Amino acid sequence: PAPPSTMPKLVIQGKKQSKSVFGGATGKKRATQKSPRQLDAAKSRNKVKLWFKDLDDTYRDALDRPRVEALLCFVHDDAHASSPPRASEVDWVMRKASLSAEDSSHSVLTLPECEDAVGMYVSYLKRRNEIDFVFQTYDRDDDDALNRAELGAYVRYELNHGDVPSDLEIDWLLEKLDIGSCMTSERGDGLVGRTEIMRAKDEWCLMPDEVATTRHRRGDDDFSRSTTLEFSSPNSREPAGGCCVVM
């Protein structure tokens, strides 16, 4: 057995009682130290609290839609976004983040709801430019949603090396994407909205072999290390990016 001086002492409630190398991590400092992700999350929450306090000039402890839009403008400025939030984006945030039982109309957001809203919106904002590119390129009727034909063109040039996808593949993909709770389309309407298209590449890669009659499987290591997608021109047969990404 080890000498008594080198024996590890008990750890009580995460507080190390010994500095011995045999005792594991160094005491209270290690037990209470936050990870970089926790520090970033705390920093983000503090920003939201300050913004919320500045915008809550009615002292209702809740923000209405114009003030939530101003909150999202602060988020855009903080993220150096190229353009302000759109009306559809503000409506989506209000609808998704409003959890107050007394406010079924989603007309106001409380501080916890604003914290959730900002976290959700920041994730969307990171992919906003690529989503804009998809809709500018393939949304031919400018209704801010992709119909079946437009989705087929997107799949052909961005996911399938320029080969025309089969009807079975498009039907399967549309069923997976058309789930509602979306910014610009509803569940089962046969359209793919701005937030629904974010899942397209993942679902395409996860398509079962009995359905995937034309799909090309590709292993792009660069894509798996990136949080953003790069889309190719429909004039090119070689799409950029790869699959799969777990959201």
Characterization of the model:
With 247 residues, this protein is mainly alpha-helical. The protein has 10 helices and 4 strands. It has helices spanning 27-32, 36-55, 65-79, 87-97, 111-125, 128-138, 148-159, 167-177, 200-205, 221-224, and strands at 11-12, 15-16, 63-64, 108-109. A two-stranded antiparallel sheet has the order 1-2. Strands 3-4 form a two-stranded antiparallel sheet. A hairpin with a 2-residue loop joins strand 1 and strand 2. The longest helix is centred in the first third of the chain and has 20 residues, at 36-55. The termini are far apart.
SSE diagram, text form:
Blueprint (H helix, E strand, L loop, with lengths): L10 E2 L2 E2 L10 H6 L3 H20 L7 E2 H15 L7 H11 L10 E2 L1 H15 L2 H11 L9 H12 L7 H11 L22 H6 L15 H4 L23
| Helix vs. strand class | mainly alpha
Order of helices and strands: EEHHEHHEHHHHHH
Helical percent range?
Answer: 40-55%
Shape estimate: elongated
Features:
247 residues, mainly alpha, elongated, two-stranded antiparallel ribbon, single chain
